[in-house]
Specification:
4 strands, four-stranded antiparallel β-sheet, 42% helix, 77 residues, alpha+beta, DUF1801 domain-containing protein, globular
Length: 77
């Protein structure tokens, strides 16, 4: 996650298909720009938080499928 002058960017890595985020979550998110691994929006009020959460969870699940141990090292459950 990164905050900048134009808003907030959430990066979701571990997804093999660069078009997946846009296809699966793009239209449902609200006022957001969705690229290969990034979801950008100006304010939380502009998006559907539950859809953003689902996208983030999908990223974690994709990492787990790869056998990544990063999640454990980061202290996330």
């Amino acid at each position: 996650m990164s905050a900048n002058k134009t808003g907030i960017s959430v990066y979701i890595f571990g997804i093999k298909d660069k078009t997946y985020l846009a296809k699966a979550f793009g239209k449902k998110l609200g006022k957001a720009s969705v690229t290969g691994y990034c979801i950008r929006f100006k304010a939380l009020k502009d998006i559907h938080i539950d859809i953003l959460e689902a996208a983030i969870r999908h990223g974690f699940e994709a990492q787990e499928e790869k056998g990544s141990t990063k999640r454990g090292r980061m202290g996330l459950r």
